[in-house]
Design a protein that fits this description.
Layout: E1 2-9, H1 18-27, E2 48-56, E3 59-67, H2 76-81, E4 85-87, E5 93-95, H3 104-109, E6 116-118, E7 123-125, H4 131-134, H5 142-146, E8 152-158, H6 159-169, E9 184-187, H7 190-193, E10 195-205, E11 208-211, E12 216-221, E13 224-230, E14 236-242, E15 247-255, E16 258-267, E17 272-273, E18 277-280
Parallel strand pairs: 1-9, 10-17, 10-18
Antiparallel strand pairs: 1-8, 2-3, 4-5, 6-7, 10-11, 10-14, 12-13, 12-15, 15-16
Length: about 280
């Protein structure tokens, strides 16, 4: 059976907020019978864009992460709802606007914080994947339609095909450790959850200092090789996807025209920008 999935490429989100705005446009003031009651104008962010900065001057990177109801296959809200929250056969989770009145415990059941409490209506609410539009024949939800960079993509395929796609495209859900089996997948999620090590390599030979392109940069932790890359034409390198608690590591830089140089660093809590490395030509 085919089910809906949402794929978000974190690298392509530029924080334009179109997805947030069309969600407001679709739900504020609109009572969509059987799907959801009106969303409040203020306070609710059914599609919420988080921001995170990595690195320090001169290498700083800002990443934006759109978040929403994950429409989990093992959804805690469905269990807590006891009939007030429905998991549809197409994978979409709907909080019943009639049965969920007064059920603030449904808000508290979501480990992602994706369910919002409507004080005026005493009702838990979340993004419905625009199920009412899809049921009318729409090919995608409005957030996907409105994204100018193509960072969002909605597809309806079988779980088996989705597993193959997730493996091939390196897609992963947010907070996979919660084991709720989300149907919202992220590409390049490491840009939000991991750290990077970066720097530049210059070489001095014959009284001339220039960028060192093609130098081998190896990052090691104790006796374990963590990653290997090469410097670009500007002598710069970047190793991404490092765990925040890697701890003590060594960067080993080697090039045919220069002696090998090793630098000790500490990876803990933030990305590491290495000071310019100067390699002196072999005599």
């Amino acid at each position: 059976m085919s089910k809906w999935n949402l794929i978000i490429d974190v690298a392509d989100c530029h924080n334009c907020n179109n997805c947030f705005l069309v969600c407001k446009d679709e739900y504020v003031g609109n009572d969509i019978k059987g799907y959801c009651a009106p969303q409040p104008l203020h306070g609710h962010k059914w599609i919420n864009i988080l921001a995170k900065e990595r690195g320090q001057y001169p290498m700083v990177e800002t990443t934006y992460l759109p978040t929403m109801c994950n429409h989990c296959d093992d959804a805690p809200c469905v269990k807590a709802g006891d009939g007030a929250v429905e998991k549809r056969s197409d994978g979409i989770v709907i909080i019943n606007p009639d049965k969920a009145i007064g059920r603030q415990d449904i808000v508290e059941s979501c480990p992602y914080g994706a369910i919002w409490w409507n004080d005026e209506l005493s009702l838990p609410q979340a993004w419905t994947f625009d199920a009412h539009l899809l049921d009318r024949g729409w090919k995608e939800p409005r957030c996907v339609q409105s994204c100018p960079t193509g960072a969002m993509n909605a597809i309806k395929i079988s779980d088996e095909m989705m597993a193959v796609l997730a493996s091939a495209e390196k897609l992963e859900p947010i907070r996979n450790d919660l084991d709720t089996k989300p149907r919202v997948y992220y590409k390049n999620l490491h840009r939000f959850t991991k750290l990077f090590v970066a720097g530049e390599v210059l070489g001095t030979a014959g009284g001339v200092t220039d960028c060192v392109a093609g130098a081998r940069v190896e990052l090691r932790s104790a006796e374990t090789e963590l990653s290997v890359t090469r410097t670009d034409p500007f002598g710069e390198f970047k190793i991404d996807g490092m765990d925040p608690d890697c701890g003590a590591c060594t960067i080993k830089i080697s090039h045919d025209n220069f002696p090998t140089k090793s630098i000790k660093i500490q990876i803990k809590g933030d990305s590491v920008i290495v000071k310019t490395v100067i390699l002196k030509g072999k005599s």
